[in-house]
Amino acid sequence: MRDVRPLLRYGRNRLPEVRNSRMVAETQNSSLSRAKTNKEDEFYTQIEDVERELKHYRKHFKGKVVYLNCDDPRVSAFFHFFSYNFEKFGLKKLIATCYKNQKRDLFSTHDSERAIFLEYEGDKDGDRIPGDDEIEVKYLNGDGDFRSAEAIELLKQADIVVTNPPFSLFREYVAQLIEYNKKFIILANQNAVTYQEIFPLLMGEKMWLGASSGDMSFRVPDHYTPRETRFWIDDAGQKWRSFGNMCWFTNLDYRKRHEDLILYKTYSSEEYPSYDNYDAIDVGRIADIPKDYDGIMGVTPGFLTKHNPDQFEIVGITQSWFDCRIKTYPQQTQINSNGATSLVSKLNDGPSIKVNVPPKGKTYYKVGANLYVKAYARILIRNKKVEG
Asked: 253 and 265: one domain?
């Protein structure tokens, strides 16, 4: 078995430090600037996607206060789901806030200096329908930003937070949930799994991916710029955008998470090349994980949608900030598929594989007389249930 100590320097007892929300002020400021400049950070989740995920967590909600702190509560699919399933889930209270909005429109222009929050404590007249007279509307003094003092006071009341937070503020949003030790189910882009602030939480089992992932469609405001792909306008004039790599992040356990991934391939050095700069082998597809290999394997980030903590251990990631490389390279010559060359340092940004001949039609790198190809980012894992 390979020596995995270089990979385990950030193991269970020594994870990279995860900054809390007070420690990310500079990041918050820069992210806020990007969000204000971009103004395309508002995506409304469909009720079907909410239902598909939340059905896996019903047992966790009995007697709990649920907080939706990034939703217009009167038009949110999340508020609709929880208010109509209040008794079925046995909730204690439902609270919802929205940034700078007091209107009932589907998409707010966020032009109000004050915002509202709603509280719902269940059906009062026996019809099992949340009526306007049963939903208490209250005004906030501020704009309803999830980082405001008022929103944090509401957060402190909550047991579970459920929402689709702004993509551009995802790091800060998660940091706040961790700081206040909250349970949560939140929707985000799968690319977030490789963030320096997020991956250590996944590795340390402070959170994990939810039960459903993949392609999701979102209603977006009318001012959003049309795109060539994954954008359309329906017959009613509603603009839509879709993403193929959405996933849920949570720290609530569910049964599907503990289902073993069926493995059928066996290891061979010819099919599974070793990295030159990490003590691990490359596995290009999740379905190709060998059942009989007891060392460290590099798999695509999509593995986390299938990860069973009883079957596999996450031991690292091939990102330079994690720094579990066993070697680094001097400046390299990059040779593009068209033959163009340039001096780079890209081999130090991820896993590399040494090759004997230049690959046809692909970019490769040269260091002295040695040739390399660079793999994409990989999650480093070890099988706990090796067969054979």
From this structure: no
